[in-house]
Sequence to fold (117 residues):
Amino acid sequence: MKLTVRGRLKSQRVSKANAPDSAKYLVKWKENRSIGVQLRECRLAKGVYPMVVLVCRDLCCDALRQMHIGGLLVEINGRNTAMMSVTKTVAFVKTCTKTALLEFKRGPGISVSRVSA
Fold:
């Protein structure tokens, strides 16, 4: 007896979380050097997350072009960063196996330029 399934299985459906314009995105880090971002602690209702406060825009860090100031580092290799301090998060990134998969959530964006009245 052959079983045929019409349409896509639930596991094959594309969710909004996997869409290119979604609020979350992944960054693969292969090198044993600096990632090219600076992080600072950000307290939210769901926990304390590392927030991106500076992104390197040099040619050496071309893979970071989707990253913006205000983004939150949510997971490192599947490990939630909500209760890790920024110091522990950076230490974990340095010691974890490479290629590391970093999951970021887009933040509201923060303007660092000053406006004079």
Notes: The longest helix spans residues 86-95. The chain has a mean pLDDT of 73. The radius of gyration is 18 Å.
